[in-house]
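Entry type: protein chain
Record version: 2
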Amino acid sequence: MPQKSKYKLKSLTIGKDTIGERIASLRKERGYTQADLAEKIGINRVLISDYERNRIRPHFEMIIHLALALDVTADEILGLKPSKSNGTKPTLKILRRMKRIETLPPAQQKALLKNIDMFLKGAEK
């Protein structure tokens, strides 16, 4: 059994967010639930929750798995490099809705898109 270290490292926060907060933010930006992300990596959802709440720190191999699953660099998860997501790439949540809209008959698509356009125009004011 490994010996417990007598040294206690301070919690490392680079920037304004912790690693867990960055994982949660990146996951939500992509429209994944904790269960979705856990399934994509092949781990239990509780681990994702524990990482996001900073109850446990992810091992370097887990950071690699998270980076691959979230399509970001490990540096972005660690906070060493700002996230390259700037709103140009639609989130998974938006993409799912777009796919559902595409399955509707053309008349319903047209009506729905008209409503969306009216809502967006009203929101801009």
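Comment: The radius of gyration is 19 Å.
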